[in-house]
Amino acid sequence: MIKFNLFFVIGCLLLSAQIPELNAQWQTDVRLTHDTARSYTSFARKSITANGDYLHVVWMDYRNGEGEIYYKRSTNAGVSWTSDIRLTNAPGSSVNPLVVAYGSVVHIAWETDRDGNWEIYYKRSSNDGLNWTTDIRLTSNVDPQYSVSISAGLYVHAVWQDERFGPPEIYYRRSTDGGVNWGTETRLTNNAASQKYPVVAVRGPVVHVVFEDERAGSGNSEIYYKRSTNDGVNWGSDTRLTNSTGQSWNPFVSAAGSYAHVVWDDDRAGNREIYYKRSTDEGINWGPDIRLTNYNLASYSASLSLSGNFVHLVWTDQRNGHDEIYYNYSTNRGSNWVPDIRLTNNSSVKRAPSIDISGLAVYVVWNDVRDGNYEIYYKRNPIGNQVGVKNNGTELPAEYSLFQNYPNPFNPVTNINFSIPKSGLVKLIVFDIIGREVSVLANDFLSAGNYTVDFDASKLASGAYFYKISSGNFTDVKKMILVK
Q: Domain 2-381 adopts which CATH fold?
């Protein structure tokens, strides 16, 4: 064990040294809401989603008396924001929203008691949050339905906990047309104990679901997992991911390529800490539990976001005597992690962080009481996701070149090669067919050389895209095709 810990520490130090400037680029906290009423992000939910330069944030807000769902967006990578937009206006409370984007389609789901009991509602925007559909009721039962999670790819997948048979069970529903219409409900679990707080993540046809489960007895919560390999048509058996004498809570799952990553809160060591594990084969097999935090006060409510080999993690941490937002990342799909990074620093309570990435940037939102009541805060690291600009050898090119991506067509990762004969600023950007920027692959000073960039389009819809390079007086554009 001593040898393993030594190698792990050395690996973390080397990993941190590979990208020494990333940690220093976090910008100042930005207050997104300004109202005397309470505003909350949701625990273990996706409160922010990013696609290109478009950022979307949702929260529950009490400025109208009862809880309502509010929204705002940025169209310039978080530099400026629209005013607050009220998305719900119905009797009763609307709470615990989450938001995901796939291409220009933005999906929001939440819980509301407007019908006399807690039900799941949903709405969508097909134009990057500019306009929204009417509310769509996803569940209809006399017993409570709550704790919804949504993930979007070619299809939209929703899971929630449902009490129609007594103790909570996990239910599932999907849309095959981007959220316009929804199929029938599917009961995913069937056990006398409670199954609750599900989270879903989709990558291609593989749908991953994690949840808390008390079937082990004695009120002991463990993390369970199940998956579908055919877009939610059929489902495998329940898989127990944790097995300890402590409690395991608040799971969160994210997937990219053949990798699935899960984080959760766990008190097996005597206090609440963040634990992590991963699968490298789309959920068939799972590695060991890895303890990511190790302090004598609680760490909890973790959220993940993935990009290529990068894994980004954010959570609430009490090591400083009160709740602060902490961050960590791995550049090799979770094999090693850098030392923890403290994102906030004041004596107020800060909770329920959510994280997402787009291009080079990393974005985090949370709720914060520094102003006397809970408000929504945000910050970003504009270069925190250096996903893969690699220098190919020492030979210097004679001229500027932008090469055709390979493979092409691709799904969802492709390689883009370029050459620059002179050191200088290089900007490599991906656009969709109507000219909207969807990803920044490079925007930095590079030495003369030959380079490869990995482009991960897992958040984008199928179709034609263009990538453009600019360096000095050289500009070139090429076309690529994403097929899912």
A: Neuraminidase (2.120.10)
